[in-house]
UniProtKB/TrEMBL annotation, chain A:
Organism name: Dictyostelium firmibasis
One GO BP annotation of this record: protein lipoylation
Official protein name in the record: Lipoyl-binding domain-containing protein
Organism classification: Eukaryota, Amoebozoa, Evosea, Eumycetozoa, Dictyostelia
Domain Lipoyl-binding, residue spans: 46-128
Gene Ontology cellular-component annotations: glycine cleavage complex; mitochondrion
InterPro entries named among the record's database cross-references: Biotin_lipoyl, GCV_H, GCV_H/Fam206, Single_hybrid_motif
UniProtKB/TrEMBL annotation, chain B:
Transmembrane region(s): none
Species: Dictyostelium firmibasis
Pfam families found in the cross-reference section: LplA-B_cat
PROSITE patterns: BPL_LPL_CATALYTIC (PS51733)
The name this protein goes by in its record: BPL/LPL catalytic domain-containing protein
All residue ranges annotated as the BPL/LPL catalytic domain in the record: 27-235
Taxonomic lineage: Eukaryota, Amoebozoa, Evosea, Eumycetozoa, Dictyostelia
């Protein structure tokens, strides 16, 4: 039996940036309207959130990242942090799904520019998801491409 | 429509609380806020500001001066009754209606001083350029050496206005502190040389880097009048409605994240602001 499902191969990838052993579904990246990417673990319990490349481009050179404390609970669309760019501009970070903060990427405090140089591989926050059904409200890649095209 | 709120010696701490409420409220509309001074001196740092790195905290505390962190980006200022505050909160759609002929120049060009809209997207640098070239250039039209130097308004290489911005999906806030006058002693004593300084500043200390509007304008009223004329002469002549403080304060009751904070000199940390705009909740 062909174990490779038509169209998509599911692969467990251990994040190279974390000691976390939670697998991340590589081909199911979704996006929020706040220009964040979101990946849900196979067991639907952990959401890893980062900044999309379009988001990083829009912000410009990022010189500051403020992330929430671990164990903080956030509702979907609740502001959980802020980034600042060298254009003296602050941007809010908003929880794409409801949950509890499990882990933050400490590297970003010392080197916020990682969000510009490699946004796809520098996650910001990992949430313990409390409402997995909210993941369905996020955009897939195709929808996100359309969204970005008309973004103001 | 653009709502115009004019304030006189209104505490900047409360003004920033109102601005945050307006900024975070969906459908709050477009606003311009002008405030002629804040009654007591206050140090204001940007959202990323480390108080201990930017402010001589012991000195500020001994002078009885508060230190606050505002919700927008940008640098540090010692503000007082001789600081003019001007804030522009616009929806991007409104900006495009007001300035439909802005050309599509790549906003990645650091040498570009023209306002631009790149493929329908507006970037922070675009707003900074627009504010200088399409708005404040007219306010300070008498000064041929008015320019935008990185994120500051300057005459030549002397800064007289500092800018800070906040961006969301549908709107932006661009606010400015203009130094009509300031106490030299406060600037030098209260503020440290920041780690990251604008390139054009080089290694100049505050007094060598800043200038005072009073050396070019006989009164603050002259500048405020220029500002009002510029607002009333915006392209496409949008309706400008002067509103009361109470109308702006209504937005404070919308639940919203509150990022403005005050520095607690005893605890040596930032704390949430508790005042009539954000009273302590009874448990």
């Amino acid at each position: 039996m062909n174990i490779i499902k038509t169209g998509i191969q599911q692969t467990l990838i251990k994040s190279s940036l974390s000691n976390s052993k939670v697998g991340i579904r590589a081909f199911c990246t979704h996006y929020s309207e706040e220009l964040e990417w979101v990946k849900l673990s196979d067991d639907n319990k952990i959401a890893t959130v980062g900044l999309s490349s379009f988001g990083a481009k829009r912000l410009g050179k990022i010189n500051y990242v403020e992330l929430p404390k671990e164990h903080r609970k956030c509702r979907s669309e609740e502001k959980f942090g802020v980034v600042e760019s060298t254009n003296a501009t602050a941007f809010g970070l908003y929880a794409p799904v409801s949950g509890e903060v499990l882990e933050i990427n400490d590297k970003l405090k010392a080197d916020p520019g990682l969000l510009n140089s490699d946004p796809a591989n520098n996650w910001m926050v990992k949430f313990k998801v409390s409402k997995p059904e909210e993941f369905k409200k996020l955009m897939d890649s195709r929808q996100y491409k359309k969204f970005v095209k008309w973004y103001r | 429509m653009i709502r115009l709120l004019r304030l006189n010696k209104f505490p900047i701490l409360k003004q920033l609380q109102i601005e945050e409420a307006l900024y975070r409220a969906p459908n709050s509309g477009n606003w311009i806020i002008i405030n002629n001074g804040t009654p007591e001196p206050i140090v204001i740092v940007g959202i990323s500001g480390r108080a201990d790195k930017l402010v001589n905290l012991d000195e500020v505390e001994s002078r009885g001066i508060q230190t606050m962190k505002r919700f927008s980006g940008g640098g540090t200022v010692v503000a007082d009754e001789n600081t003019l505050f001007s804030s522009i909160l616009l929806e991007f759609e409104t900006l495009k209606q007001l300035f439909p002929t802005l050309s599509a120049i790549s906003s990645s060009s650091s040498s570009s001083t023209l306002p631009s809209i790149n493929d329908g997207n507006i970037y922070p640098k675009d707003i900074m350029n627009w504010s200088a070239n399409s708005f404040y250039k007219h306010v300070f039209h008498e000064q041929i050496d008015f320019s935008l130097q990185e994120n500051d308004y300057a005459f030549g290489k002397l800064k007289f206005g500092g800018n800070a911005q906040s961006f969301s999906k549908h709107k932006f806030l661009h606010h400015t502190s203009f130094l009509y006058d300031f106490k030299d002693d406060h600037m030098m004593a209260c503020l440290k040389q920041p780690d990251k300084i604008p390139e054009y500043r080089r290694n100049r200390d505050h007094l060598s880097f800043l200038c005072k509007l009073k050396d070019r304008y006989q009164s603050k009223d002259h500048i405020i009048n220029n500002l009002l004329k510029t607002i009333n002469n915006l392209p496409t002549s949008p309706s400008i409605k002067e509103v009361t403080l109470e109308e702006a304060e209504q937005f404070l009751s919308n639940p919203h994240p509150k990022s403005n904070q005050l520095f607690d000199y005893n605890l040596k940390s930032w704390k949430d602001i508790t005042n009539e705009y954000n009273p302590i909740k009874n448990i």
